[in-house]
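Much of our argument rests on the idea that a fold can be written as discrete symbols. The record that follows shows the chain in one-letter code together with its fold in token form.
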Amino acid sequence: MTHKTNSAYFDALAHKQPSRSWFSRHYWKEISKFCAYFSHEDFSVLEIGCGTGDLIAAIPAKEKTGIDFSLAMIEAAQSKYTGIDFQVMEAENITLEKKYDLIILSNLIGYLDDIQAVLEQLHHVSHANTKVIVTYYNSAWEPLLKFGEFIGIKTKTPTQNWLTQHDINNLLFISGFGTYRNARRMLVPIWIPLISWLFNVVFAKFWPFRFFCLNQYAFAMPLPKAEEADWKKKYSTTVVIPARNESGNIENAILRLPDFGKHIEIIFIEGNSTDDTWTKIQEIQKKYSATHDIKIGQQKHKGKADAVREGYAIATGDILMILDADLTVPPEDLPKFYEVIASGKGDFVNGSRLVYPMEKEAMRFLNLLGNRFFSYAFTWLLDQRFKDTLCGTKVMFRTDYNRLVVNKKYFGDFDPFGDFDLIFGAHKLNLKIVEVPIRYRERTYGSTNISRFKHGLILLRMCLFAARKIKFI
């Protein structure tokens, strides 16, 4: 994909072709599987340096395009696969007019004369929410890979750029892309029954083995360019407020909610209260009907997750927010969440209660320990730093939530609270997840609906279940 056209470089691209070597078959199957995990049936996908098309053919998508500088490679790809638009094209001069949801550069950047120039070309085929996956060798493997070429289990390639993870992230940044996740996979690049599975699926996920993984992945998206005037009033927002035994907080949720965005829709979903919460919600809807867009409903089943789903089902806003009716997350902080998602700094915004000091009775000690445990667990599970996973306030675009619902079958209906369900779903959708620190307040009315031990065990089981569906794949 560079201006090099010598035979050595052409031979280097043979690593894109199916090979009879154990290394090639097993190695490319792993990369294809991992990239496919983060694509979806309604995506449009572009692979830069597609070779003979084996990787992009394995990616689920409604529209696929593969480009490569080699006419021979493209002709081979066209003879093998139908339904994919293969084109001969230089990566330094991408002339495609379409904007893609996902762009993949797999083991390409090592062969480029000017990596930055190629990455900058990606802006021509990217929209604001395009995701880019860059895969590359761990530079620590160079001696072993050269030895593999020497003994014939790996195709020989010319000298290439041996880049560290920091190098790749930095090149993406100076080219106008922000890296939001890094991952490492594969310890044994050849297939050895049981041994390969044990090392690649299990050991590779733990310290210190993960630092020796062969494949490095960088997930990035275009850095936001919009000026404040472009996004400040661009999107409408739906704030869903699940409420159970929260009568004393209902009116304050309205009075303390600031005005932001184009329009705010408020949806109260009452769920199995034993106090007068439902009566209060109906009263507040009538009282503020002239000044606020308020919808109300009663939950048909149980659990916060179910209440949120019912609220989201009738939501009309571009952006969906959750505000717990206990108001321990201040309604005054919601504009911060709007700013992050509307300005393009993130696709999924999670509140973090564990940055600022809390009020004395805001979170009990055992709850604090549990939250810290789950923050470490999620950091490991999702390959990105998490400070807090159980903050009730989570924000995403309605279009992404609708995608999450379609893909819900992957995880199943396993979360009665909704926090993990949304975070795991956002990860599977390859959304950029960011956290907004908030000051966590004491309750001013009622008592918590959370049981520390019973619900803690449920959350732990959910983590173990998710590990099988996210980490050990």
Remarks:
- Residues 7-222 form a domain with the Rossmann fold fold (CATH 3.40.50.150).
- The chain has two domains: 7-222, 228-470.
- The radius of gyration is 25 Å.
